[in-house]
């Protein structure tokens, strides 16, 4: 038996060296390890008929030969495969492997769409700091320190001593309105700004994420009045949400606009008749108003010569309203779960 096994190994070594193709290798595999009549397989079947005390020793030897053969097959297979690739036996008519292609996050898609809509009517895209000074977020917007109106913007404060009195504390900007006076300070008039940035507020629940995005329009020119504000928002709403949507302005209060409004749009589900989603046919969309003279003054613009309007609202909220998506938790947008992201 021992001689037989050694013979098999020897013959096999000679034969495998001569193998030149994967097809030949397969024939050889069958010749030695084939289930029915492979040389080694048959020898192993004969083990049973040996004397009892011989079986374990011979069994071990047979196994070693088998491991050796299998290893050699694998090695030769790999070698032949890589040779195949190098020698160019590549078939260009076979279908290629599809490469996975990513896409923009739905919030980025929304931002691009919003800026492009406003670009058509002359708004220039701007971005102002996410880590901002108290001055630009509040003080310059007619909300002096300790003014109760500030509470609405549940703000994150940075633990750092103010570098000067005017700028005050460092914060994470709670709204894109902080870009208004920064834009005015550039000193170029007229202004048509579209500031889309990240904003932060200390609120987290199904409809609030502590980080979200807002887009803010600011127009400063001579003789600007409410009709310009209304026309601009109407233009945007029809382009973004659809021709059939209407808007309405509802009186409201902001410290940095006078008069101030909240903007509602007619509900897309019931078209304004009233349904479960909207109750009375309208959905609340945005804050807006005519720029307060104190804000113009902070931006070194003469309120007797110039006037302007501003509006601002959430990107995520608008996107969800547009798509009719019934996402019951806004935080899903930022969990990076591909099962969600890949749907858009
Ligand atoms: N900044 C306000 C907010 O975050 C919205 C607003 C923008 C209101 C511009 C008036 C003018 O709620």
TrEMBL record:
GO terms for molecular function: ATP binding; magnesium ion binding; phenylalanine-tRNA ligase activity; tRNA binding. PROSITE patterns: AA_TRNA_LIGASE_II. CDD domains: PheRS_alpha_core. InterPro entries: aa-tRNA-synth_II, aa-tRNA-synth_II/BPL/LPL, Phe-tRNA-synth_IIc_asu, Phe-tRNA_ligase_II_N, Phe_tRNA_ligase_alpha1_bac, Phenylalanyl-tRNA_Synthase, tRNA-bd_arm. It is an enzyme of class 6 (ligase). Binds 2 magnesium ions per tetramer. Its cofactor is Mg(2+). Its EC number is 6.1.1.20. Belongs to the class-II aminoacyl-tRNA synthetase family. Phe-tRNA synthetase alpha subunit type 1 subfamily. This is Phenylalanine--tRNA ligase alpha subunit.
């Amino acid at each position: 038996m021992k001689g037989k096994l050694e013979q098999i190994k020897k013959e096999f070594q000679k034969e495998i060296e001569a193998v030149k193709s994967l097809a030949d290798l397969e024939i050889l595999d069958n010749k030695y390890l084939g289930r029915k009549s492979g040389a080694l397989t048959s020898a192993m079947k004969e083990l049973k008929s040996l004397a009892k005390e011989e079986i374990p020793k011979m069994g071990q030897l047979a196994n070693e030969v088998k491991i050796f053969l299998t290893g050699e097959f694998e090695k030769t297979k790999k070698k032949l495969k890589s040779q195949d690739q190098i020698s160019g036996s590549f078939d260009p008519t076979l279908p290629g492997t599809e490469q996975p292609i990513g896409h923009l996050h739905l919030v980025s898609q929304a931002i691009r769409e919003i800026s492009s809509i406003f670009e058509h009517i002359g708004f220039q895209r701007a971005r102002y700091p996410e880590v901002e000074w108290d001055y630009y977020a509040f003080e310059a917007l007619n909300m002096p320190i300790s003014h109760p109106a500030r509470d609405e913007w549940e703000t994150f404060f940075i633990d750092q001593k103010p570098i000067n009195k005017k700028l005050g504390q460092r914060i994470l900007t709670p709204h894109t309105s902080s870009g208004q006076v920064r834009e005015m300070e550039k000193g170029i008039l007229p202004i048509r700004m579209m500031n889309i940035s990240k904003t932060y507020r200390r609120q987290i629940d199904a409809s609030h994420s502590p980080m979200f995005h807002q887009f803010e329009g600011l127009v400063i020119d001579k003789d600007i009045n409410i009709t310009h504000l209304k026309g601009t928002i109407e233009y945007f709403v029809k382009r973004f949400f659809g021709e059939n949507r209407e808007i309405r302005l509802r009186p409201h209060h902001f410290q940095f606009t006078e008069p101030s409004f909240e903007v509602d749009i007619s509900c897309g589900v019931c078209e304004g008749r009233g349904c479960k989603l909207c109750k009375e046919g309208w959905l609340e969309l945005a804050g807006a108003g005519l720029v307060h003279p104190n804000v113009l003054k902070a931006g070194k613009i003469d309120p007797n010569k110039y006037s302007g309007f501003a509006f601002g609202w959430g990107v995520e909220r608008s996107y969800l309203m547009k798509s009719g998506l019934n996402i019951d938790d806004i935080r899903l947008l930022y969990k990076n779960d591909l099962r969600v992201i890949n749907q858009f």
